[in-house]
Amino acid sequence: MDIIIIGSGPAGISAALYAKRAGADVTVITRGSGALAKAEKIENYYGLAEPVTGAELEANGIAGAKRLGVEFVQGEVVGLSMNDDFTGLVVQTPEKSFEGKTVILAAGSTRLAPKIPGLKELEGKGVSYCAICDAFFYRGKTVAVLGEGEYALHEAEILQPHASKVMLFTNGKEPAVKIPDSIEVHREKVDAVESEAVNGMERVSGLRTENGASIPAEGLFVALGTAGSVDLARKIGAAVENNRIVVDADMTTNVPGLYAAGDCTGGLLQVVKAAYEGAVAGLAAAKYVRKQ
Question: How many CA atoms lie within 13 A of 39 on its CB side?
Fold first, then answer.
């Protein structure tokens, strides 16, 4: 494929419209309605004589993209990587993989982060957000994954060939997918990430649950909910600062062929800003494809 867009919100659809009109083959992968659909009323957007619901604005945008011939695939994206010869990007869903010359990340930002004592302090010291990046460092070790859905299961399965033991902590929720017997499941809430001094520095040593149990683990991989744009950017080595993807004026990341637009780049969390960045990213991606 020429361009794969992850996300069907204002940024993703705007990118699709501009890239398609620029002559590119465009596929949008979406897991369904996003933050826009939850807006009760929108009346500060150009061209609207009367207020509309977010769901209506979202539906109209998608319908317009489909009219131009943009392809849509329903699915949850759980992974992003380079292809074997580093000439394209591979987007993974639980069902299949898609390869594109370029990818535009437009799946929004993760607005909720787990408020677990010790989690932020131990990032990079046993707390990770990318199994494909860090699994190698946990060979023969006991690791935990925090999450309950397809994304968490995907991370756990990547860790299994490396770690001696993989545990899934659902943080008080029931698993949303079938978990293999080879993965130990803990359903209780996590109260804290414990640490101990190793070689003069603090490292993850385990998790403490709401019932007071202390469960040893040498690594914790956070995979709550679904993978947002920032999570996917981290997986492929794109620069991330303060939980936003770093882009230049063309919405280009530091990874060739990878673009980002919308809430995931920070700044004003508004439809108008997302639509603008999507347009820029779509045109830049189409130009990149023509040069290949």
Answer: 22
CATH superfamily, with its number, for domain 127-222: FAD/NAD(P)-binding domain (3.50.50.60)
User: What is residue 41's predicted lDDT score, i.e. its pLDDT?
Assistant: 80
pLDDT at 197: 80
> Could you give the residue ranges of the DSSP H alpha helices within 26-82?
54-67
CA gap 137, 159 in Å, rounded: 10
Q: Using DSSP bridges, classify how beta strands 79-82 and 89-92 pair: parallel, antiparallel or unpaired.
A: antiparallel
Which residues, other chains included, contact 110 with Cβ-Cβ below 8 Å and sequence gap of 6+?
A: 225, 228, 230, 231, 243
CATH number of 3-110+228-291: 3.50.50.60
> What contacts 61, CB < 8 A, 6 or more positions away?
10, 13, 14
pLDDT digits (tens, 9 = 90+) for 227-249: 889 989 988 999 999 889 999 99
**Residue extent(s) of CATH 3.50.50.60 domains in the chain:** 3-110+228-291, 127-222
Does 260 or 32 have the greater pLDDT score?
Answer: 260
CA–CA dist 108, 100 (Å, integer): 20
Question: How many alpha carbons fall within 13 Å on the CB side of residue 113?
Answer: 12
Residue 190, pLDDT above cutoff 70? yes
Predicted pLDDT of residue 97: 95
